[in-house]
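User: Here's a chain of 74 residues. Predict its fold as tokens.
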Amino acid sequence: MSDQSAAKARGGILKGALWGAALIGVAAVLYIIAQSTFKPQQQGGLASAAKGEMAKLVVPEEPTAAPTNVFYDS
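Assistant: Prediction complete.
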């Protein structure tokens, strides 16, 4: 009888630990979602965040047309 009760106790502890880890994971995901939802928008967009080589990036106001070149595989 003591072997069965010891195995049952270990199973209960493992089940509790897994539920606890799952609860912490769900709480972490909800926290990240809440932080991204209520975080104020950064002013300036990409241009203000650009540093180094990215500062040279020029983003056109209007999109350009796709190239008309067609390449065929022979």
